[in-house]
Amino acid sequence: MARRGLLIILSSPSGAGKSTLAKRLMVWDASLRFSVSATTRSPRAGEVDGTDYHFVDEAHFRKLVDDRDMLEHARVFGNYYGSPKAPVQQAIDAGRDVLFDVDWQGAQQIANSDLRDAVLSIFILPPSITELHRRLVERGQDDADTIAGRMRKSWDEISHWDGYDYVLVNDDLDQTEERLRTIISAERLRRAQQPDLLDHVRTLQREFEDRGA
Ligand SMILES: Nc1ncnc2c1ncn2[C@@H]1O[C@H](COP(=O)(O)OP(=O)(O)OP(=O)(O)O)[C@@H](O)[C@H]1O
Ligand SMILES: Nc1nc2c(ncn2[C@@H]2O[C@H](COP(=O)(O)O)[C@@H](O)[C@H]2O)c(=O)[nH]1
Predict the structure, then answer these.
(1) Which of 31, 71, 109, 164 allows an S-S link to 123, with CB 3.0 to 4.6 Å?
(2) Which of 20, 37, 119 to mutate to test the pocket of ligand 2 (most atoms within 8 A of CB)?
(3) Distances (CA, A) of 194 to 42, 94, 115, 205
(4) Tens digit of pLDDT for each residue in 136-156?
(5) Whose Cα sits closest to atom 4 in ligand 2?
(6) What pTM, to 2 d.p., does this model score?
(7) Are 15 and 126 in contact (CB under 8 A)?
(8) DSSP H helical segments within 74-143, as ranges?
(9) Sign of CA dihedral 99, 102, 104, 107
(10) C-alpha angle with apex 75: 108 to 44, nearest 5 degrees?
(11) What confidence tier does 174 reach under pLDDT thresholds 50, 70, 90?
(12) Domains (range + CATH), the chain
């Protein structure tokens, strides 16, 4: 039977680099599917509706939640964000791995959902709080108030770091990408091997018993 896809969750405080890393991973492996979230936040310059996010108003978002079309949803920095369920289910049923860029609340909800067995969660830490601030400023996408608000919430996000399967410090971008690739490759191998390993161990057990060893 074909392997069911993984749900690869990236979380971090705002500005630590998860969107940048997610984009690099999509280039590394074109078979990865990105879970395009719905959000009530306004688009930033350059963001494309349907690619970066589905930009919706609050009434539309509420309907998606009420219709149970969301795998998870949360209020983050004063806006609503959520992961539509159908594309995720379709992708993993087809054996494709899905990449999520969600906060700790979303990660927890997915880890507690029916799909929990497919979850691979990775938390990205910044090298320092000063560097986190520098990255938010350098990104040039948010005004000073927004950046200050995100910085104030950064510890709240970081404090959930130990609920994840893996934790990486995103200092050097190339190195972090390489580590993410290693984690994903190893987890794919581990999970792909699991069914065959069980059969193999049963065969070894029968052989062991037949020999009367
Ligand atoms: N290792 C790194 N070294 C230097 N700059 C980096 C590194 N990783 C990411 N950046 C830069 O930091 C900024 C923030 O990165 P990014 O937008 O990917 O963060 P994010 O975690 O997705 O933030 P948000 O949660 O707000 O979407 C970007 O300008 C990005 O180019
Ligand atoms: N729980 C969810 N969190 C999400 C989702 N999509 C994004 N996010 C998180 O929101 C913040 C802010 O994102 P930004 O694009 O406004 O900078 C960040 O932590 C994202 O990970 C989602 O679907 N669910």
Answers:
(1) 164
(2) 37
(3) 44, 19, 17, 17
(4) 999 999 999 999 999 999 999
(5) 102
(6) 0.95
(7) yes
(8) 85-93, 104-111, 129-139
(9) negative
(10) 115
(11) very high
(12) 7-35+98-210 (3.40.50.300)
